[in-house]
Amino acid sequence: MTPLPRAFALGEIAERFGLELKGDPAKPIRGVSTLASAADDQIGFLANPRYRSQLATTAAAAVIVGPKDASEADGRQTSLLVAGEPYVAFARVASLFEHERPPAPGIHPTAVTAESAHIAATASIGPHCVIEDGAVIEEGAVIGPHCAIGPDCVVGTQSRLSARVVLVGRVRLGRRVLVHPGAVIGADGFGLAFDRDHWIKVPQLGGVVIGDDCEIGANTTIDRGALEDTVLEEDVRLDNQIQIAHNVRIGAHTAIAGCAAIAGSSRIGRYCLIGGGAGIIGHLTIADRVTITAMSLVTHSIREPGEYSSGTPIQESRLWRRNAARFKHLDQLARHVADKNKGHPHE
Amino acid sequence: MTPLPRAFALGEIAERFGLELKGDPAKPIRGVSTLASAADDQIGFLANPRYRSQLATTAAAAVIVGPKDASEADGRQTSLLVAGEPYVAFARVASLFEHERPPAPGIHPTAVTAESAHIAATASIGPHCVIEDGAVIEEGAVIGPHCAIGPDCVVGTQSRLSARVVLVGRVRLGRRVLVHPGAVIGADGFGLAFDRDHWIKVPQLGGVVIGDDCEIGANTTIDRGALEDTVLEEDVRLDNQIQIAHNVRIGAHTAIAGCAAIAGSSRIGRYCLIGGGAGIIGHLTIADRVTITAMSLVTHSIREPGEYSSGTPIQESRLWRRNAARFKHLDQLARHVADKNKGHPHE
Amino acid sequence: MTPLPRAFALGEIAERFGLELKGDPAKPIRGVSTLASAADDQIGFLANPRYRSQLATTAAAAVIVGPKDASEADGRQTSLLVAGEPYVAFARVASLFEHERPPAPGIHPTAVTAESAHIAATASIGPHCVIEDGAVIEEGAVIGPHCAIGPDCVVGTQSRLSARVVLVGRVRLGRRVLVHPGAVIGADGFGLAFDRDHWIKVPQLGGVVIGDDCEIGANTTIDRGALEDTVLEEDVRLDNQIQIAHNVRIGAHTAIAGCAAIAGSSRIGRYCLIGGGAGIIGHLTIADRVTITAMSLVTHSIREPGEYSSGTPIQESRLWRRNAARFKHLDQLARHVADKNKGHPHE
After folding, report:
1. With 90 as the cut, is the pLDDT of residue C82 above it?
2. CB-CB: which of B182, B259, B333 is closest to C166?
3. Does residue C185 sit in the same domain as residue C215?
4. Are B89 and B17 in contact (CB under 8 A)?
């Protein structure tokens, strides 16, 4: 039987996270939830205006709200925790209720570790891991089951490889980096030279450098550089199934959604947001604070902050087919309209 | 040397699957094949009209056909097995010739299993698996090599994890679920809150629930929910390299082709067909029996059954470039045409 | 401490690779680099004209250039190595400085190998590998950590599976095939038949055949055929996260960039170039020497060599939204223009 989760008093939570409390400080809190599903010992939050109507009906013990919603909600029965940024406050409160059991330090007996590897005493190496020559696992790092850490790779302090992560070679992870299962970091970049009638492989001699506080999603791949390194600056957040090619550089605090791909040698700025499935071709430069919407393809450098898109809207296929057929002759259509214009000088 | 495959009499096959036989019931059958390549001890099928002409030339011992093709084929030499749904009948017949050797029950000595895990006596745990605290492996389940089953995960009766599957945490698979290699189920959803100048991680406290008879393709990822669960109802079929974000719900009998991606909290109906590489952004609702064609992007909810598309047709790049350049000014073109119209009130 | 890399005399390098040297043959060379970062014991190269200005400023000991750049660079201080194809020459020279330590032959004691598997004496089987019944590992093949080689699979002479590769079943790799981590070859194709109200699985009875000198990227998936084999001819180069569905055939020397996907039974020609994220729907035929640009979707067969594209250009979202809205009525716009034309018979 699962034991009852630990309870915190609502007032204790307000104090710990610097939130203004409107309500009963003694109320016991055992978890977090959505407004729609919360029980009366759980905290909900309101960050997205589309859920505002749920404030009247939620059974939550308390709701984290912004100052504006707090004033409008006066007189309601539920307790309120008022925060400048309700979603940030919620993230902090929710972390109280995470039940991750950090594994004990030490090396599992089934792990295979090279004698020349340096593994800190406080690090944890899970079952069936392989740690190769010269690899360095720093203090407090957690290497989950089935990870392979290639020659001379470094896993920084407090970093965590959830399970089945491969660092192939010449990979350096900073501190507090979190890598999800299936990620492959440091495989050969896709470097080919065409020699008359066949391909020859271009050696990939660079590495990968991942800054502090980065997160790398499940089954994401980050290739090592051809000559210099592939680089993620600090606090870069990559979702699942992303492909980062060789020699890409991603600026600090940029977040990229699932299935996006960045081709070789492109440089992405800081504080960018790249939508799911978006593509950026090679050798481009993207400025800071650029947003690319989902499934857009970037084919030239972007020098100005702002939001960029490509593609066409979804439609019933029956209608879409007609429009798509016209797209194939759009240039002709535009020429035709322009020509008619020219033919009517009085217009 | 591979032994000769087991033979079935054609009449025995007809009877077993309730098919009408026009031909020799004693004919021995040792396998299935395409019409073009079949040998005279193999059964072919005709489901796609584009292959109809091969009916005249195939060397197959028998061909599974629909009633219409059966009547038109009268007088041909090849035997016929008549089925209402020839492709369904073929799938059933073909299963006679699968030579999967189910692994013996028991736990491989190289597997690492927590004492608190519950592993049914008829389950099979392959080499180098890791089964963590509180995990439950039900009767007849097969866990192939290199799988990691996280704390408190459940693998239902007769389910099969082919090889190297990770269930990270709070994952429940129903009965007869088939998961292909490299799939990662239950990794953290991509939840981030922006705190002035950096990201903070939003704890992902939900789980994943996979219904009976689902199939999950190779290297597909299904994240666990932020607060509630990510859910696949029964008989959902996912191809390879699909990304299902946190809190998505997919209705029963929906099939999704390779490389599609569904962003957080979207709800997909029952009996939907999502094409390869298609994207669905977050917080949408898609009705039952909706088809999305390959590489389309869905940016708003779809309330009506039917087929939907986006994108433009493939063209020679030389032509495409001209049309694409015009797309950048399509609104101007449309305004221009509309203005001219207004200027000609007699039209 | 890393030992100083081995040095080669510049003249020795010129001779070994048949390059014309303009400069000091005694100059010691310890590595390769970009023009911008090279030290004076490193060789750079100039293949992309956009970097030509760096020829005047590089600190490289020597630069590999084409004949045209060589004549224009006369009088400069840096030594030159003149090559017909500078990038090909660079690839060869760079390979001198790769420091891959090939693993020793033999089977790691943690590997689990079936008695009926045939493993050549010169092959290397890494830690925690699983080699199943009837598998064949030929001379000089290297199977890195955490690989699983399914029943009756063949890994050809000198092939290398970097780490954590799964060959599921009925997979034959030729000679000198290189497979990167996370690749899954030979999983079931996505074959489903719809039986009134639910899906039934169509057995996938074919295999996968990979030709000599192919390269398969990280987390790429190649499904086995339904009845016949999925085939990659020789020297096919696949980047990361590519999906190759069942019964696809890819012609020799074709290269495919990351995240592309090819649906079932399509046949791709020889010497094709498929861009990143591109999609090819099922049952198509693509001629030899076809180039598909990034994220294009191919929906019909292509009979002529050449370059093909689909999609729309990236724009500021503010402008894109207006144009995209017009696309939804493009057919009406075109009809309207055509109608007006008809109304003006004098034009």
Report:
1. yes
2. B182
3. yes
4. yes
Q: Residue A108 has which token pair?
A: 């599992």
Residue numbers in A near B313 (CB within 8 A) = 324-325, 327-328
Determine which helix (DSSP H) or strand (DSSP E) holds A149, and give its type and residue range: strand A148-149
8 Å CB contact of B223 and A240: yes
Q: How many structural domains is chain C composed of? A: 3
Q: Are residues A300 and A212 in the same domain?
A: yes
Higher pLDDT, B292 or C100: B292
- Measured between alpha carbons, how far is A233 from A229 in angstroms, rounded to an integer? 12
Q: CB-CB: which of A164, A192, A279 is closest to C255? A: A192
Residues A122 and A45 occupy one common structural domain: no
Reported as type and span, the H/E element at residue C65 is strand C62-65
Band (pLDDT 50/70/90 cuts) for residue B121 is very high
For chain B, the chains sharing at least 3 beta-carbon pairs closer than 8 angstroms are A, C
B167 found inside a domain:
yes
Same domain, A16 and A144: no
| C91 with A281: Cβ contact below 8 A | no
pLDDT in tens, C169-190: 999 999 999 999 999 999 999 9
Asked if B310's CB is within 8 angstroms of A316's CB, the reply is: no
Q: What is the CATH number of the domain that holds A41?
A: 3.40.1390.10
Tell me which chain B residues have a C-beta less than 8 angstroms from the C-beta of C327. 327, 330
> Which structural domain range is residue A240 located in?
113-308
Do A179 and A143 fall into the same domain? yes
Q: By C-alpha distance, which of B85, B137, B84 is closest to B106?
A: B137
Say what the ipTM of the complex is: 0.95
Whether B92 contacts B9, CB under 8 Å = no
Residue A135 sits in a domain of what CATH number?
2.160.10.10
Q: How many interchain CB pairs under 8 A, A with B?
A: 223
Distance CA A256, CA C205 (A): 39
Helix (H) or strand (E) holding B11: helix B10-16
Closest residue by Cα to residue C248 from C234, C220, C267:
C267
Active site residue B146: no
Closest CB to A331: pick one of B166, B300, B323.
B323
Q: Which amino acid is at B280?
A: I
Residues in chain A closer than 8 A to C334 (CB atoms): 326, 329, 333
Q: What's the gap in Å between the CA of B193 and the closest CA on chain C? A: 24
Which residue is closest to C315 within chain B, CA to CA? B328
Partners for A (CB, 8 Å, 3+ pairs)?
A: B, C
Closest chain A C-alpha to C16 CA, distance in angstroms: 17
* Residue C121 CB burial class (10 angstroms; 0-12, 13-18, ≥19): exposed
Domain match, C151 and C223 both: yes
| 8 Å CB contact between B101 and C151 | yes
Q: Which pLDDT value is given to residue A317?
A: 98
Is C198's CB within 8 Å of B215's CB? no
Question: Does residue A255 lie in a domain region?
Answer: yes
The beta-carbon neighbor of A164 closest among B148, B203, B299 is: B148
pLDDT of residue B5: 67
One domain for residues A160 and A281: yes
Please indicate whether, in this complex, the C-beta atoms of A320 and B306 are within 8 angstroms of each other: no
- Same-domain pairing of C178 and C225: yes
Tell me: pLDDT of C72 over 90: no
pLDDT of res. C340: 79
Q: Which amino acid is at A105?
A: P
The answer as to whether C294 is a domain residue is yes
Q: Which of A97-111, A136-150, C156-170 has the lowest mean pLDDT?
A: A97-111
Residues of B in contact with C117 (CB under 8 A): none
* Active-site residue, from B198, B246, B300, B329: B246
What confidence score (pLDDT) does residue C4 get? Answer: 61
Report yes or no on A2 lying in a domain: no
